[in-house]
Amino acid sequence: MKIPSLKKSTLALAIGATSMFAADMAMSQALLEEVIVTATRRSQSVQEIAFNISAISGTEIEAANIIDAQELLRAIPGVVVPDGGARLAENNNGIAIRGLNLDPAATDRAFLSDPTVSTYVGNTPIFANFILKDIERVEVLRGPQGTLYGSGSLGGTVRYIMKKPSTEAVSGKIEASYGQTDGSDGNNYSFDAMINVPLGDTAAFRLSLGRIDNAGVVDSVNLYQTRPDGVPVAQGGDFANGLPVYVNNKDADTVEIDYVRASVLWEPTDNLEMLLSYQKQEGDYGGRRQTTSSPNGYGEEYGEYEIGAVVAEPASNSAEFTSLEIEYEMGFATLSSSTSSYDRTYDGISDNTGFTAAQGWLVFYSYGMMPRPAVEASRHNEEKAFIQEFRLVSSGDNTVDWVLGAYYKDQEGSANQETLYLGHGEWNESIGNYFYWMNPESDATFDWTYENEFTDMALFGEVTWHATDAVDLSIGARSFKNENTVTSQTSFPIWYSYGPVVTETNKDSDTLFKLNGSWTLSDESMLYGTISEGYRRGGTNATPVYPDPDYPNDPEWGSFDKDTVINYEIGLKGQMDSLTYTVALFYVDWQDPQLNVATPSGAYYAVQNGSAAETKGLESEFNWAATESIRLFGGYTYVNAELTEDLMLHDANPDTDGKTELRATSGAVLPGTPEHTINLGASHTAAFSNGLELISRIDFYSQSEVENSILNIDENWAATLEGFQLWNLSFTLRGESWSASLYAKNLANEKGVTATYKDEYMTSDPSQNFYGTGQKDFITTPRTVSLSASYSF
Questions:
Q1: What is the pTM of this model?
Q2: What does the DSSP assignment read for 679-725?
Q3: Could you give the count of Cα atoms lying within 13 Å of 471 in the half-sphere of its Cβ?
């Protein structure tokens, strides 16, 4: 694979942007902003930590006009997040670090396996695409982190650290923005506000809230007009024979998000601090940001921002959590307690008509006679948990430092998908109950429910020996046990078929280790090495299996095993005058990688294990204060991620010995991860005599091609997606208490495809009376130009 070449127009843009700064390029001893992080459970700068970590401050996030976690993480070298719009981002944690991912990006159903990257808000392990406002910093820890955090991971950890209340003074901020996205007939609006109020000398209250209201981009040009109950309307009122009535839902993929965060800080003594926080975010999405690049059933091509869905695809989500953080300085150590709970839900509708047509199932249900075929998948999933974590961290200047922790999590989750052939029962009755063997009282062709109860207990910690002034050696461990109970049922009500309720329990326990060493070469540089183990729990699919003759799945489909990694890393980080840098080489051995698939019958969602994969590569990052007014930053990442053995899964035959169905071949590239990524940026600050500042900034992102799926021999999924480049440009005028910004995202209006549903998987089929198109491409956000203004006090 090659790094995508720069287009002439893009290169001209880069040269123009560079010339904007060229007059001011003399070397300087300007100080870089030092971001202090708590990734190791101690306050340290990024350059002092002996593993590869990136941190971006809230000030930097604001300067880049970033409010979305997807955009932020894509700006961090070595982190990959598929960009498919806000609707897609809410349901699945698609973050991949060091290429550790086997699942396709093109899905919005809840995966049954845990993500490979854990996410935290403060010290609460929760995944939600929270808006990045009133935030202190974001930390990205590469590699397994189970010896420092109770919630283990395979690829790494992302932490969102919110701003605390301040006892210093009353302060506040209000901000509003207005923008427009290419292809949209509407506009984008946002508003947020923050107020901080001291409550005496020892306490303070902080409240932040906001709303985002973005017009959509994609036009659903051939939606079926429907009745209030969702059933398609027939032309001329002829329900038996009338063709559908088509409507054009312009700018369908609207985004409306409301969010609020409140926190109270109490410091009754110099040794004790308590922080109570509550955060909630709700979103409503008009549709998915996808376009159709295949023709409809009449052979007509769709426009640039058009989609061929015949069923509307709205979605909504809600996420909230409460946490109580307590820290007590004991002199020899700091004792911390983190108590938290969260509750998140997601509801979404997807157009499965194209999928049903591609499988030939429209004929199966109606002999192709139904004049208005419309199949929707209605999905709901919910998750709530209680988490308690205790930590004891040594204090002072010691020859030996240590961190000890205990972790407990009690989680309940549920998922449901009901697939409806809209109006089928009523249509069947209108033609004289021709399909007499089918249920006229239900349009549900598929009804799947899944309930999960999970408890996890762990002891974890690290001990660091400062062997000399230059050499540190660390050993860490995480010992855990967990239990997972799943209850599931799959039914086909339209056929009067109701599957058995299956309940299964899975238990596991193990101890993971981490070894780390660092050598301080000078006051400005450090060499380090790490070997760490990562773990993702196994579980049960609770699928009915043999000997039940109506549900013929091999018994091996009933459960799946844990998967593990051994992460090897060596790196160099340091500072040369006004330049900080990090360079790391890594190799990850991934055993029994988990893959979210369906059983051979296609009737059950399930997880199965592959045999082995590996990822290896280079991560680099730099930040250079070239002059007192110019800063350059960025990085380059190379990742070679592939299967090292064929991916074999169990088939449907109980008499088959072992895994016999070949799904991907050894050497298949792991999906969604580009081999090459480049992140570059530059900012220039011009100070004027009247106290005003003008900050100019340009950011560049480039990725090489990616694979759509690990299933490289499956024509339904296998596809190579071209690389793409994104440019962002902004100008901010800042006064003492106000600022105003003009900024453009995706300035060159690059249409990057991050995932796809192929024709073979979702299609149009005139022979089954389906003239819409199921094929869809997930695309990056088109060029968006915005104005924002803020006032602080």
A1: 0.91
A2: EEEEEEEEE-TTS-EEEEEEEEEEE--EES-S-TT-TTT--EEPPEE
A3: 3
Give the rounded distance of the alpha carbon of 752 from its chain centre.
17
The CB-based long-range contact list for 568-572 (8 Å cut-off, 24+ gap) reads 568/530, 568/531, 569/51, 569/52, 569/142, 569/143, 569/529, 569/530, 569/531, 569/532, 570/527, 570/528, 570/529, 570/530, 571/51, 571/52, 571/527, 571/528, 571/529, 572/525, 572/526, 572/527, 572/528
* Structural tokens at position 790: 């803020």
pLDDT tens, position by position, 648-683: 988 877 777 778 889 999 999 999 999 999 999 999
Residues 6+ apart with CB under 8 A from 269: none
**Helix, coil or strand: residue 533:** strand
Model confidence at 32, pLDDT cuts 50, 70, 90, reads low
Q: How many helices (H) and strands (E) does the chain have?
A: 7, 46
Name the E strands within 363-470. 375-394, 400-421, 444-466
pLDDT in tens, 462-472: 999 999 999 99
How far, in Å, CA of 289 to CA of 742, rounded? 25
Angle at 89 between CA 85 and CA 93, to 5 degrees: 150
Q: Which segments within 524-591 are labelled E, that is strand?
A: 525-536, 539-540, 559-560, 563-576, 579-591
Which residue is it, tokens 């790094």?
Answer: 3
How many angstroms from the chain centroid is the CA of residue 618? 22
Q: Which amino acid is at 684?
A: H
Q: Say if CB 588 and CB 544 are below 8 A apart.
A: no
- Candidates 506, 664, 559; CA nearest to 102 is 664
Q: Which residue in 220, 218, 245, 250 sits closest to 233, CA to CA?
A: 245
Closest by CA position to 780, among listed 98, 186, 81, 303? 81
Q: Which residues, listed in sequence order, are joined to residue 159 by a DSSP beta bridge?
A: 120, 139
CA 401 from chain center: how many Å? 34
Q: Which residue shows structure tokens 């049922």? A: 489
* Residue-wise burial string across 193-231, b where 16 or more C-beta atoms lie within 10 A, e elsewhere: bbebbbeeeebbebbbbbebbbbbbbbbbbbbebeeebb
Sheet holding 776-779, edge to edge: 290-291, 776-779, 753-757
